[in-house]
């Protein structure tokens, strides 16, 4: 099957049209071909899914003979994947050469997968967070995967220390950033927000009496973290954790590979390649 046909069929597997209440179409969606549009009409020799197409991911795609990489995030380090400003950038040139060598097309699947996998009852479940829940083994703890934010209620509770190490082990990351006390018990956890500076709504969620902690995808050092720190100093059981944006969502792209194997029924390799934790930690 040609690459453009695979992309079309993949889009049809999701609800589409809107994501978190924001409507999108073919023109406004972030889900565009980021590289290799001139090779869309060629036969697909294999598919790699990943969170972002790092150089290492591209090299792995070459090894398995895949000429289509489906990513969740940008390819060239900027929103909208603008490339005009990078023409003289050496790293850009070398990365581009790797893609050109194998005529690799890179297509972004962000809005469609987040819009949800259609269910029999007409609802839709976010394809990324479905993969996250399955990787963590938290299916029985989630309230409702068709509604945002995603709330997990642990019957026995987990200490912040236990929860942090569970995330490190299951997400296979190098570390967790957190605000809280290691022995405080977390029974009610929200997952899914980005704290980037305009975070009043997130603070309102953490303020709720039935919420103990929030696991953020991204977080700045102010707003939510300041609130959690002050709350803790006042004896309130509030905590914030973050394994990182890409680290948290990457299991969704692993799930996508299995999903595409089942739904597309193609006789070509379809494989998840982990882009992996981009940071290491030096600690005291």
UniProtKB/TrEMBL annotation:
Belongs to the GTP cyclohydrolase I type 2/NIF3 family. Keywords: Metal-binding. The lineage of its organism: Bacteria, Bacillati, Bacillota, Bacilli, Lactobacillales. Gene3D superfamilies: NIF3 (NGG1p interacting factor 3)-like (3.40.1390.30). InterPro entries: DUF34/NIF3, DUF34/NIF3_sf. The keyword Oxidoreductase does not apply. This is GTP cyclohydrolase 1 type 2 homolog. GO terms for molecular function: metal ion binding.
């Amino acid at each position: 099957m040609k690459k453009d046909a695979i992309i079309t069929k993949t889009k049809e597997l999701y609800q589409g049209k809107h994501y978190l209440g924001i409507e999108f179409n073919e023109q406004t969606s972030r889900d565009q071909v980021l590289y290799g549009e001139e090779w869309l009409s060629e036969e697909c020799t294999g598919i790699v899914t990943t969170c972002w197409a790092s150089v290492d991911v591209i090299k792995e795609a070459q090894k398995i003979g895949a000429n289509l990489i489906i990513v969740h995030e940008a390819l060239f380090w900027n929103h909208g994947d603008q490339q005009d400003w990078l023409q003289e950038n050496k790293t850009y040139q070398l990365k581009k050469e790797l893609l050109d060598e194998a005529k690799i097309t890179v297509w972004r699947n962000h809005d469609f997968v987040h819009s949800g996998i259609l269910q029999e009852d007409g609802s839709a479940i976010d394809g990324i967070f479905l993969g996250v829940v399955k990787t963590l083994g938290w299916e029985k703890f989630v309230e409702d995967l068709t509604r945002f934010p995603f709330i997990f209620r642990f019957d026995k509770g987990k200490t912040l220390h236990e929860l942090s190490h569970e995330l490190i082990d299951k997400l296979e990351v190098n570390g967790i950033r957190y605000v809280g006390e290691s022995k405080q018990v977390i029974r009610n956890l929200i997952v899914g927000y980005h704290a980037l500076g305009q975070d009043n709504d997130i603070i309102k969620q953490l303020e709720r009496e039935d919420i103990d902690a929030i696991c953020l995808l991204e977080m700045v050092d102010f707003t939510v973290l300041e609130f959690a720190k002050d709350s803790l100093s006042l004896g309130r059981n509030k905590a914030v954790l973050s394994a990182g944006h890409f680290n948290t969502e990457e299991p969704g792209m692993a799930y996508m590979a299995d999903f595409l194997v089942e739904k597309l029924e193609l006789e070509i390799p379809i494989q998840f390649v982990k882009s992996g934790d981009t940071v290491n930690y030096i600690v005291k």
